User: Which sequence fits this backbone?
């Protein structure tokens, strides 16, 4: 009786195997495309498996993000809000704004999209200038603070017209997510989206293996020519963002000034973290927390990671002997290739 049942099932099993083989062959015949270009003052590389090239649609989505969040675009929503006491925003802007407020609250203000005037004052924004005095820093800090801006529906309100919003520490990550959504909506499951070092991956790469993303070794490199790897992370279906002070800094009076500004003190951070790489379910979140961790330092970062198991981090820092050292989330251990 059992043999008769097996004989009866054999044709169906054969069809199933043949069908699976045909699906795999068809999937392998679909080409991978790689589109490159410039956006948000940096460059992007997007690799995806698709029957059609989607570069025009990808660029269109990125331009939507630019028109909402770019401070370099005078007609963008954020530029309009910065010129006025506030203003109406679209859903793209509001999505980023809500995430920014969420991360600001979780990090006790280490992440702050109102910090732009301090960044400018220290010579890392739109203008280069002299090192600000204590009085100048204190004066600027009066209109710095994430709680000085709020939303009512899609209307952004500022408690002081001098409050300036700057989403550059989260916009690249959001742009990555927007492109990833487009690809997923098209039914594409194998892709990597990278904008200025912020990345999200899905499925497998053209070699039919999981995506491998490098963590760059932090060295003094203002020209961004060094790309020596500290480690390679073997990850897929994850977003990854890195923030560091090893490429944006300057020396004055024999002292090194890094571009990460602590919103609470008004001064460049002086702790020992050199770079923070964060893995998260989405790149907007990864981008914001990578910046936050650069402000918070090692111990406070560990506390946040304990509270948020959905986040993983790879931190490079100087130890007590001023030697380079690494700390990473325990959950990241089996994903690291030295």
Assistant:
């Amino acid at each position: 009786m059992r043999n008769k049942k097996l004989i009866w099932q054999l044709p169906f099993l054969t069809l199933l195997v043949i069908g699976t083989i045909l699906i795999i062959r068809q999937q392998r015949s679909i080409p991978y495309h790689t589109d490159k270009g410039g956006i948000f003052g940096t460059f992007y590389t997007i690799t995806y498996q698709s029957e059609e090239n989607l570069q025009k649609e990808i660029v269109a989505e990125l331009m939507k993000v630019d028109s909402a969040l770019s401070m370099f675009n005078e007609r963008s929503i954020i530029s309009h809000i910065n010129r006025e006491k506030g203003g109406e925003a679209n859903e793209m802007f509001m999505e980023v704004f809500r995430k920014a407020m969420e991360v600001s609250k979780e990090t006790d203000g280490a992440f702050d999209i109102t910090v732009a005037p301090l960044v400018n004052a220290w010579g890392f924004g739109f203008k280069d200038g002299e090192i600000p005095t204590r009085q100048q820093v204190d004066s600027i800090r009066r209109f710095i603070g994430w709680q000085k801006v709020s939303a009512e529906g899609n209307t952004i309100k500022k408690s002081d017209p001098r409050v300036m919003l700057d989403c550059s520490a989260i916009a690249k990550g959001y742009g990555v997510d927007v492109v990833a959504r487009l690809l997923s909506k098209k039914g594409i499951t194998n892709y990597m989206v990278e904008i200025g070092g912020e990345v999200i991956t899905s499925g497998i790469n053209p070699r039919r293996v999981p995506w491998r993303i490098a963590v760059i070794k932090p060295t003094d490199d203002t020209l961004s020519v060094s790309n020596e790897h500290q480690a390679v992370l073997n990850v897929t279906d994850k977003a990854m963002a890195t923030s560091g002070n090893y490429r944006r800094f300057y020396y004055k009076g024999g002292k090194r000034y890094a571009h990460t500004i602590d919103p609470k003190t008004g001064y460049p951070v002086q702790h020992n973290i050199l770079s923070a790489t964060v893995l998260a379910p989405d790149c907007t979140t990864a981008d914001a927390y990578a910046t936050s961790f650069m402000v918070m330092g090692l111990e406070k970062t560990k506390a946040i990671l304990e509270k948020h198991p959905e986040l993983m981090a790879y931190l490079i820092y100087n130890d007590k002997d001023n030697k380079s050292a690494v700390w990473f989330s325990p959950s990241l251990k089996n994903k690291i290739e030295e």
Observations:
- The first helix runs from residue 2 to 29.
- Residues 13-26, 221-226, 248-257 have pLDDT under 50 and may be disordered.
- The two ends are 56 Å apart (CA to CA).
